[in-house]
Amino acid sequence: MDQVPEEWQSRIDAVWEDDALDDGERIARIDELAAELDAGHPVALFERAGARDSAGEEEAAEPLYRSALDAGLDPVRRTRAIIQLASTIRNLGRVDESLALLADEYERTRGAAMADEAAAFYALALVSSGDATRGASIALTALAPHLSRYTRSVTGYAAELLNPRSV
Questions:
Q1: Which of 47, 89, 91, 161 has a CA that sits 20 to 30 A from residue 148's CA?
Q2: What distance in Å separates the CA atoms of residue 8 and residue 44, rounded to the nearest whole number?
Q3: What top-level branch of life does the organism fall under (predicted)?
Q4: What is the chain's mean pLDDT, rounded?
């Protein structure tokens, strides 16, 4: 049920890329396009949630993200929805709930699509929860494979942040 016509997705992408739109216009355009699909279509719900979230309307975005997830999204969109929902609820002050969602998604995506994105937002939630050291370790571990040099060293230092050597 989460499939959408390529042409529809292209029009959605164009709305997101249009910097001339203000938040209200973007929400209206996304809602118009979402209305072309079934009311409970997971991708339509996800796009509507994202438009509100981007506009700073986190309280309106949250139930739409949850409905999109309940309706069933493909693996990449599912991870995006979890990340965006978790970021939204972190912004609403529910850091523990955000952290739980992101910890699960971080573990689920390891070695898969969106793993680095899940790690980045998990690291942010860890910092928000007061565990900046673990957040730095998660972020450095995700970054290390992308370095042109020092991958092994950075990976080792990231692990050492969590288990410092005794002096």
A1: 161
A2: 10
A3: Bacteria
A4: 95
